[in-house]
Structure formats: C-alpha cells, structure tokens
C-alpha cells in the first residue's frame, strides 16, 4: 500500500477511546489522527481531507440527556453537510459504543439512501439496570452490504455500556432492516452452531442488554456506515482475549482487527 488512507478519529467532550482507536487503524495500515469535534465545526479541519471517519467510545458530554445525544446533535447540526457529503462520497464511517449511540441519535444509523439524518432508532438502558462490563459473542450477517464485516462469521468482544438496548418506535422497521442486511451484528450464544442468530431475545447475560432481536450493531443501506455497542478495538491482540490463558494458540492480532483491515483496504482501493 503506497499512500495510506487517512482516518479522522473524533475526540472531545468525554470521548476516551481515541488512543486505542487510532492504534488499531494504524495497525491496519492507515494514518489516523485525533481531531477535536470543535475543529471540524469551526472549519479549522475538513472531513473532505480524510478517507475514513471514526467516532470512538467514551462518555461524551457525561451522557447527559442520554448517551450520545449531545454529541449526536453537535454532529447533526454543526457538521450536517460535511457528514452527508462524506457518506455520499463513498467513505466509510464507524461508531463504537458511545460512537454508535452518537450515530444512531444523529440519524446516520440505521439511516436511509438520502442520508437525511432522521433518527429512527435509539439505544435504551440495559434491562439489567446497570453498566455491563463483560465479554460477548457476535454473529455477523454474511449477506449484509456492510464493508466493515466482510468475511467475518463470529467474534468475541467486550461490552462496556449502560445504554445498549437497541430499540425503535416502529417495529416494522426491524423487518425492513433485516431484509436489507442492515442488522449486521447480533449477540449469539457461543455454544450454538453457526449460523445461530435469532430474533428471539436471548437470556441475560448472553445478550448483555436485552436488545431487540439481539442487535449489537447495524449498518446503513450502503454498508459504508457501521456502528456497534461492543468494542472490537479492545480485542486487537490475542493477549487481550478473554480465554487466551486456556487456549493453545500463537499470539498475534486479535479477532477485532479484521473490522479495521476491511475498512482500510476498502478505502485504499478507492484512492
């Protein structure tokens, strides 16, 4: 890869996973830069100069008024046209944990073909009533258009959130999103055979938040914009795996790295 894709890793106001997000993109072959959201809003920096945008995890604005709400509004109204142009230009976007909440509440996910930024879903409080910090197993839709998850069947990743239950006011939308492959990542019982994703909500803690249809992550209709509650960047090395001490394996990249490799390779192919 001669020229490296440039990644804009959004920071500011309580986001706290910028460092590891930058690290995984650079491990995947990109050049990543931490950019405070105000620099974009004020015009000091332009999204147009980047090939990938990432909104990391954390607790933006202290989760006041709901996780991701205030930063989502900051992007939705302060960067509306920049974000829309970015997606329409065929550039990938990812939101992880709080970043997923941001993308959902600003209306970029699950999104629509017009990139209208109309909110149609939300992330509600976990049914457990408390913050969940545990490992989960995800299963990915092989027929999804999502460019981030190509070739991935299952993945073990940690979850770290208090508001991760994916819901919508209109349950018919779930059928539509399922048909278009937008329900790309779902919690699954690791003891089941693949494919094992189910619409019936799995028991706690297999589903750590009781998300409808066990939804852990979704993409937009184009497959370019992807968000998920779990943290794939937190499983970038086999040394970080939940069970590595009980496994006879050669150490190297962790299961989560494939997501970032996919996006970097996609962006590089379009440069």
Span of the ends, CA to CA: 11 Å
Number of helices: 7
Average of the residue pLDDT scores: 95
CATH class bucket: Alpha Beta
Strands ordered across the widest β-sheet: 2-1-3-4-11-10-9-6-7
**What count of domains describes the coordinates?**
1
Q: Give the low-pLDDT segments.
A: none
Q: Which CATH architecture is right?
A: 3-Layer(aba) Sandwich
- The dominant shape is globular
Describe this structure in words.
23% of the residues lie in helices and 20% in strands. It has seven helices and eleven strands. The protein has a nine-stranded mixed sheet, sandwiched between helices. A two-stranded antiparallel sheet has the order 5-8. The radius of gyration is 17 Å and the shape is globular. The termini are close together. The model has no long low-confidence stretch (mean pLDDT 95).
């Amino acid at each position: 890869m001669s020229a490296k894709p440039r990644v804009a890793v959004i920071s500011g106001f309580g986001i706290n996973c910028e460092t590891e997000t930058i690290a995984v993109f650079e491990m995947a072959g990109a050049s990543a830069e931490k950019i405070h959201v105000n620099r974009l809003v004020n015009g000091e920096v332009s999204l147009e100069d980047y090939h990938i945008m990432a909104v990391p995890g954390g607790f933006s604005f202290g989760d006041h008024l709901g996780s991701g709400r205030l930063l989502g509004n900051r992007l939705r109204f302060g960067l509306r046209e920049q974000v829309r142009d970015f997606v329409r230009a065929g550039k990938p976007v990812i939101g992880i944990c709080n970043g997923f909440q941001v993308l959902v509440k600003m209306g970029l996910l699950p999104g629509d073909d017009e990139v209208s930024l109309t909110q149609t879903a939300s992330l509600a409080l976990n049914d457990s009533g408390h913050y969940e910090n545990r490992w989960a197993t995800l299963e990915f839709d092989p027929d999804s258009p999502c460019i981030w998850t190509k070739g991935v069947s299952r993945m073990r990743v940690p979850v770290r959130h208090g508001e991760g239950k994916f819901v919508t006011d209109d349950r018919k939308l779930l059928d539509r999103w399922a048909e278009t492959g937008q329900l790309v990542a779902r919690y699954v019982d690791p003891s089941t055979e693949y494919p094992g994703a189910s619409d019936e909500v799995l028991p706690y803690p297999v589903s750590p938040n009781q998300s409808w249809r066990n939804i852990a992550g979704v993409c937009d209709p184009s497959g370019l914009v992807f968000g998920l509650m779990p943290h794939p960047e937190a499983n970038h090395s086999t040394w970080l795996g939940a069970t590595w001490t009980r496994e006879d394996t050669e150490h190297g990249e962790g299961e989560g790295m494939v997501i970032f490799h996919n996006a970097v390779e996609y962006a590089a192919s379009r440069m």
